[in-house]
Design goal:
324 residues, mainly beta, five-stranded antiparallel sheet, globular
Length: 324
């Protein structure tokens, strides 16, 4: 018994003096993915205007912390990165079949997002991560409630503040920076979820040289931006979601022209397609792409299940020829 007390005391002191104990990355084993159609039992190509549906997965992880995913970043070697609104990061690999259709995920790991002292966030007001991007060779992650954008050398490292709360304090508590993406002029575009002027003008920002320039975007009905991704041309893919009790969930994919950010007082995205019932749809909050040699793109959208049994984590793949 005395030996037990001795070792327990050593363990207690170690944990107390080491606030990062237990915060290492952890592997998500037994990750299950099953194929989903855009429209179940539908014959022929789904009725899309500019996109072609290629593949879809419903993803389930065995770890209770898996879920709530927001934002999506893909690399050219098929690595993917996302964040959870409970303060976790996730990364892994996309696996494709011979027709280059998404078939599964592999090498999936998760970990805790940490503050500047390398300590995991422990409260919802600090850990509500909504978007992830790569900017100046670092990961940047936006948070709402305690609005800020943090920078990470690696997802396992401590954070540094890129944009602080004072620069974003006028944003709604649960409607902050849901979308952000680097621009080709080395600035950063950020879109708020719920800051609206005059019912139809959504407020966004261009961050450059530590200054915030306000931009206005045309808002469409009940749709709210959830993620953006910069294309090689400088134009941007915009993902928006809508939910109403009567119509349910829907998602809209549009194109923002880079030049419009500098030439128009009200920026109006170009609509590409809408994903709505009877199509398979959920709370889509992440968009990214892979470039193809023919000038086209494989576009991927990821849904946030909000840790609810009535929702799903979906990853859908579409082809777009790059034309509008």
């Amino acid at each position: 018994m005395n030996n037990f007390k001795h070792y327990f005391f050593i363990f207690f002191v170690f944990v107390f003096l080491n606030p990062t104990f237990g915060s290492e990355s952890f592997e998500v084993i037994e990750l299950h993915s099953s194929n989903v159609d855009l429209i179940p039992n539908y014959k022929g190509d789904p009725p899309l205007k500019n996109l072609k549906f290629l593949s879809g997965l419903e993803i389930k992880g065995n770890h209770f912390k898996f879920g709530g995913l927001s934002g999506l970043v893909l690399s050219s070697n098929f690595d993917f990165f996302s964040v959870s609104d409970k303060g976790y990061w996730i990364k892994g690999k996309l696996d494709f079949n011979k027709e280059f259709k998404l078939k599964s995920l592999s090498n999936v790991t998760m970990g805790y997002l940490k503050d500047e002292n390398n300590v995991p966030f422990n409260h919802k007001s600090n850990s509500d991560a909504e978007s992830i991007e790569i900017y100046n060779d670092k990961f940047i992650i936006s948070f709402e409630r305690n609005h800020r954008v943090l920078s990470y050398d690696s997802l396992n490292s401590n954070s540094e503040t890129l944009i602080n709360f004072n620069q974003l304090s006028h944003l709604p508590n649960n409607g902050g920076i849901e979308s952000m993406s680097p621009l080709k002029d080395s600035s950063l575009l950020l879109l708020s979820e719920d800051l609206v002027i005059g019912n139809d003008k959504l407020v966004g920002f261009r961050f450059y040289n530590h200054e915030m320039e306000q931009l206005l975007f045309k808002k469409t009905g009940t749709y709210k931006p959830t993620d953006i991704a910069s294309l090689p041309s400088g134009d941007l893919l915009l993902l928006e979601r809508s939910f109403t009790p009567i119509k349910g969930a829907s998602a809209k994919i549009s194109l923002i022209k880079f030049d419009d950010l500098f030439s128009k007082s009200l920026i109006e995205p170009i609509h590409l397609d809408t994903i709505s019932p009877p199509m398979t749809v959920d709370n889509f909050e992440g968009i990214s792409y892979l470039s193809l040699k023919n000038g086209g793109y494989h576009i991927f959208i990821l849904s946030d299940d909000n840790y609810r049994s009535t929702q799903r984590t979906l990853l859908m793949q579409f082809y777009w020829d790059g034309k509008v």
